[in-house]
Design a protein that fits this description.
Length: about 170
């Protein structure tokens, strides 16, 4: 598009250019939070699960098989387009595994329904080894060959209000 301006209107041209630049900057600024809402790697800060600090999910993981490898816990929105979708996790904590029971605090962006997934990479190779690695999900759904380890978001969804919601996940191994 080629716009011509009457003689002596250079100031108007500069103002329009600046105005379009400002609109573009506002558009980028409002688009950023949507991008930034996913893939937040965080530390296990239990102070974020104290009374009045929510919304958050305090997750107690039972049945960790061994004190070796890494335990990864991730939160997702419990809906059809985001639950276990690649790159759609909200926050992730990854720590060395400790046999028995471990507890985590996962802050969530706002009140809503969330799903939590836990994976124990027993040998720490960063790959899922079906015969040795373990896993679990919020509400402890049945995991079998028919759902290929990906139960419906309706089975794992946990309603979280403005406070801290406590849940327990039981690890499963082959």
């Amino acid at each position: 598009m080629n716009t011509t301006f009457p003689k002596g209107s250079i100031g108007m041209k500069k103002r329009l250019t600046a105005g379009f630049g400002a609109l573009a900057a506002i558009g980028l600024a409002t688009a950023s939070p949507a991008i930034a809402q996913y893939r937040s790697e965080i530390h296990n800060d239990m102070s974020r699960c104290t009374v009045g600090s929510g919304p958050a999910v305090m997750v107690t993981v039972d049945g960790v098989k061994a004190s070796q490898g890494k335990l990864r816990i991730q939160s997702y929105r419990a809906n059809s387009s985001e639950w276990l979708a690649k790159g759609k996790w909200l926050s992730r904590i990854e720590v060395p595994a400790k046999a028995g029971t471990m507890t985590f605090c996962l802050p969530v962006p706002d009140a809503g329904t969330y799903g939590i997934a836990v994976r124990h990479d027993l040998n720490g190779n960063g790959k899922t080894d079906i015969m040795s690695d373990g896993g679990g999900m919020s509400n402890n759904p049945s995991i079998n060959i028919f759902n290929l380890g990906k139960p419906s978001y309706t089975k794992v969804g946990v309603p979280v209000g403005d406070n801290v919601k406590s849940i327990r996940i039981e690890m499963k191994y082959m």
